Amino acid sequence: MSAIQPPAEIVWWKQPLDKVEGTWISIALVWSLIMFFMMPFWHIYGKQNLSSEAYKTTPQAFLAKTEAMVQQYTVRTVNTEKGPIPVVKPPPGSDVYLAGRLWQWYPLLEFEKGQTYRLHISSLDWQHGFSLQPVNINTQILPGYEMVLTVTPDTDGEQTIICNEFCGIGHHLMLGKIYVTDGASMEVGQ
Amino acid sequence: MSNELFRTCPESGLQFHRPAERLMKAHAVVAVVILLLGGIAALLVTLTRWPAVHLLPADRFYQLLTGHGVNMLIFWMISFEIAILYFCSSTLLRCRLATPKIAWLGFALMLLGIIINNAAVANGDASVMMTSYVPMPANPNFYLGLILFAVGALIGCFIFLATLVVAKDEKTYEGSIPLVTFGALTACIIAVFTIASGAIVLVPTWLWSLGLVNNIDAAMYRVVWWALGHSSQQINVAAHVAVWYAIAAIVFGARPLSEKVSRVAFFLYIAFLQLASAHHLLVDPGLSAEWKIFNTSYAMYLAVLASMVHGLTVPGSIEVAQRAKGYTKGLFQWLRKAPWGNPIFSGMFISLVGFGFLGGISGVVMGTEQINIIIHNTIYVPGHFHATVVIGSTLAFMSLTYFLIPTLFRKQVAFPAIARLQPYFFGLGMSVFALAMMGAGTLGVERRHWDMAFTNAALGFDYPASAYTLMGIMGMAGVVSILGGAMYILVTVVSVFFGKPVESESSFGIATTTLKRAEPVVVPDGGHAAAGKWGFAAPGTFLLAIFFLLIFVLYYAVNWKYLASVWPMS
User: Fold this and answer.
1) What is the ipTM of this complex?
2) Whether A141 and B454 lie within 8 Å, measured CB to CB
3) Please, which residues have CB within 8 angstroms of residue A61's CB and are 6 or more apart in sequence?
């Protein structure tokens, strides 16, 4: 009469529950419900929620919007061994475009602390992962989909975007930056 | 039924159908060979992610990581599970296996799939990770191998189901199927769902890789692929919980505290476990919060509830069995006096504790909709699933192997001293490994990443020194657990292929169980609780469960606190 044999009682479903099981099931069920309701609770009272705002797009259309923003709001460039990369400082509250492509986050961004931005992110080729470090915000970036993240940086300094979805042999080289300035524009980064 | 078709194991009283026995052996042997391949890849991958060693070049690292993932998560697990399905149907029900010839066809397809997929990865143009996210292309044979394997496994599932029908029809048992077989049935139902999802996503992807389909939508791929990718791990959960119950029965003669509770818990797996595919999509674009909350919580954490129930009832049934043998002193004498030198038990118990405390808690925490923002695709994720799949499933299957070597293979366990130590090396090494990964992931170290120092990148980033320390600890603990894996393979291969035949002495004191019709439960005066405390039949287990819950609550709260510190977003 063990777990590898048929139940001892033909009508096993009428066997009474032991107190230890009944008590534990009640406690575990209460905990399960608390965890469940914590998520809607955070949507109402918490400040860190991903919006479900997203659009279908194409790599061409998204790149065009990104380039238009780069044209309009580039404030400086960062020189790297692999060439200069523009740093874009869009006005607070505006729509900001960030493209992931093999193997770069384009362009670099500069935000003001305490201001809110509508950050649109998409991929121009394969799947990528947006991982902002050290603040530690991670989202999945897909080609053909434009995700809108409404963010309010509340710490200043340099944040690095690391690709955290495997995207081929140059995956570990794929980095970007978000420079957050405190109030008036100050020089950060290189 | 001809008697020649069956043999009865003199030690365990189990009755083996010879054609089924040969199939179980074949599946188990293939599984162990795959484990060896995946283990070699594991060593090289670990030594690359250990920053001070950083062994392989990038291309080789990504290639071996792909091979490690597919071989371990799909091929090793499912090959072993098909053997478990045949054991739980044919052997436990004392029944002939339905259509052994078709079962061999399934075996051949699985083996062919394994070879084709591994050849594609070895060829170097299929380093796309196990997930093979489109539109990153792979050699078409990568998908073809997976498809063939899946078809073979599906045949195995249907052979299992057909055997249940035959057993019922031929009245080889009375009443209901054993709890362990019920657990295997749960695994089988989940497997059918999993494999169907795999076919739906991989067949078009294969055609796409051949140029016959134009475009596979990346978001659609992820939704359907994870119905394969996550659900296949749910097969493992159902299977290893069934193995826990089986080992409790084999080693202690334990019977379930109540059939009703354990079976309802398995049923909750069938009903809700699949929703967890959503865990992988919590930070994907375009999915609504309602969809995420409902699915990521398995409705209302009803599958988590089921695991918490098994987490109590498995050790609880052991406690009751031990107390019935007279180990009634205090709360934990039953546990202290358990056979810790018997790897069948020690491996199973480490599997249970590691799965619950490390894998279970981390899984629920990172599967919380908003908390996933601070964890998605960091190395925390493999930290979690090494605790569930490696400590939980693999170690449980290893423990079962020490029982199968004398009963199924009729060989003595070689190097018993090594076998005794093996679960400790493997289980404890893997526990430290998983914890270190979770720690590094909390500091933002990424998974599937060759170089956390970003050497030669146009831009740079410095992780804190503590992240490097944790990755170093991960490397060392990884090597210890791989050593534990090598010990398992050494013992298994030497026992099976070069071992001495079993005479009459049992290995590791397996309790003699006979599969005769069980006696009705005798409830002593005062109920089951008579041997326990506070009116509880298993008070020690209850205290452990409360301890588990405290850690769970605390860790859950800490993660919300951490989340609250990141940038506000909506």
Assistant:
1) 0.95
2) no
3) none
- With beta carbons under 8 A apart, name residues in chain B contacting A168: 136
- Closest A-chain CA to B294: A36
CA distance B167 to B185: 14
Helix, strand, or coil here: B450?
A: coil
What strands lie across the sheet with A175-181, from one edge to the other?
Answer: A74-80, A83-88, A108-112, A175-181, A157-163, A128-133, A137-141
Using the beta-carbon criterion (under 8 Å), do A28 and B308 form an inter-chain contact?
yes
Q: In sequence order, what are the beta bridge partners of B328?
A: none
- Please list every residue in chain B whose beta carbon sits closer than 8 Å to the beta carbon of residue A188: none
For residue A70, give how far its alpha carbon lies from the nearest alpha carbon of chain B (Å).
Answer: 19
The answer to whether A19 contacts B529, with C-beta atoms less than 8 Å apart, is yes
Contacts of A79 in chain B (CB under 8 A): none
B249 and A154 within 8 Å at the Cβ level: the answer is no
B528/A5 Cβ within 8 A: no
Tell me if the bond preceding B291 is cis, omega within 30° of 0.
no
Three-class DSSP category at B6: strand
Q: Are strands A108-112 and A137-141 parallel, antiparallel or unpaired?
A: unpaired
3-state secondary structure (DSSP) of residue B43? helix
User: In what helix (H) or strand (E) does residue B66 lie, and over which residues does it extend?
Assistant: helix B58-69
CA–CA distance, B175 with B333 (Å, rounded to integer): 35
Alpha-carbon B525 to chain mean position: 40
pLDDT in tens, chain B (570 residues): 445 789 988 777 889 999 999 999 999 999 999 999 999 999 999 999 999 999 999 999 999 999 999 999 999 999 999 999 999 999 999 999 999 999 999 999 999 999 999 999 999 999 999 999 999 999 999 999 999 999 999 999 999 999 999 999 999 999 999 999 999 999 999 999 999 999 999 999 999 999 999 999 999 999 999 999 999 999 999 999 999 999 999 999 898 999 999 999 999 999 998 898 899 999 999 899 999 999 999 888 999 999 999 999 999 999 999 998 889 999 999 999 999 999 999 999 999 999 999 999 999 999 999 999 999 999 999 999 999 999 999 999 999 999 999 899 999 999 999 999 999 999 999 999 999 999 999 999 999 999 999 999 999 999 999 999 999 999 999 999 999 999 999 999 999 999 998 875 454 544 434 333 344 444 555 555 566 788 899 999 999 999 999 999 999 999 999 999 999 999
**First vs last C-alpha separation in chain B:** 67
Contacts of B519-525 with CB under 8 Å at 24 or more apart are B519/A1, B519/A8, B520/A1, B520/A8, B520/A9, B521/A1, B521/A8, B521/A9, B521/A15, B521/B255
A24 touches chain B (CB under 8 A): yes
Q: Which residues contact A64 (CB under 8 A, 6 or more apart)?
A: none
From chain A, the residues in CB contact with B449 under 8 A are 164, 166, 171-172
Task: Return all residues near B308 (Cβ < 8 A) that are at least 6 apart.
Answer: A24, A28, B360, B545
Contact flag A39-B517 (C-beta cutoff 8 Å) = no
